[in-house]
């Protein structure tokens, strides 16, 4: 049985004590819901992997209420401080060398010499992290490989009965995961995952940021970079300018195909921020409705590849990628 807690003082106290006791609490952040456990307790972290069916090799982000708390666990370069001043609390994760005295478990860090740290935005999450008094390891609160949850109902749809509680803070305002920036070589910042803070915003402070070279980079592959991720059950077709009658449509901008039986407009006004916030909820809704109506797939209208559009298209490319699990393989007959 998973308890649904609210952000009242008693809800927060219950969530914090579950974390301290080594249990699992899903909680809302500005990006997506995280599935949290005390990062210093390896048994608690192991429960995250079990609840998500997550491959063991993925390192987790540790969440903190303040930059000062985060920086006790990593060796922060001046650039990390500048980025924290500008973007924390907010949707940016920094990968930095682990501090020698850090108490974060090897399991949370996957035994790496680096650690991913983040200070999420939101009063409730800040209170929870302060009350818990420990670093909280939290991947997105979905089954591994599935769509990230942007409200508490999504979390329960996949994890009810597998976790102790969900702290319901309503829908997540950003709706896309944090941007992951590797600063382990301070002179060569590297973008591991596009997300809620755009490349342009980061480059205004960092200068040019490199993209990882999968051939030669020693850095571990982020699961955010594994191809099939964020996968609905139905196949996904991108850059669709014409929609077949038996396809669901994920629309963007003024709607051209109003007769579609299953459709979800990310933003009728073409606003990328609104589109990001509605992306995962839309994929989930179309996946359910499309299966119910026996549609053959989800067609996605083109989305501009600028600003937050880069992160949106990154997630959509993964949703459309070939699936390792043949039971989920998209039909090969789509145009
Ligand atoms: O917005 C978010 O970041 C959400 C909320 C809950 O905070 N969390 C999230 O966690 O998306 P997750 O586990 O789904 O993605 C974490 C990303 C992965 O791509 C992972 O590989 C990368 O961060 N990561 C974590 N530690 C790393 C490390 N030491 N080096 C490189 N990448 C790392
Ligand atoms: Mg995830």
UniProtKB/TrEMBL annotation:
Its EC number(s): 2.7.7.87
Presence of keyword Protein biosynthesis: no
Enzyme class, UniProt record, top EC level: transferase
GO CC terms in record: cytoplasm
Matching Pfam families: Sua5_C, Sua5_yciO_yrdC
Keyword hit for Acetylation: no
Residue span(s) of domain YrdC-like: 9-197
NCBIfam families: L-threonylcarbamoyladenylate synthase
Role this protein plays: Required for the formation of a threonylcarbamoyl group on adenosine at position 37 (t(6)A37) in tRNAs that read codons beginning with adenine.
Protein name, UniProt field: Threonylcarbamoyl-AMP synthase
Source organism (scientific name): Acetobacter vaccinii
Lineage, uppermost ranks: Bacteria, Pseudomonadati, Pseudomonadota, Alphaproteobacteria, Acetobacterales
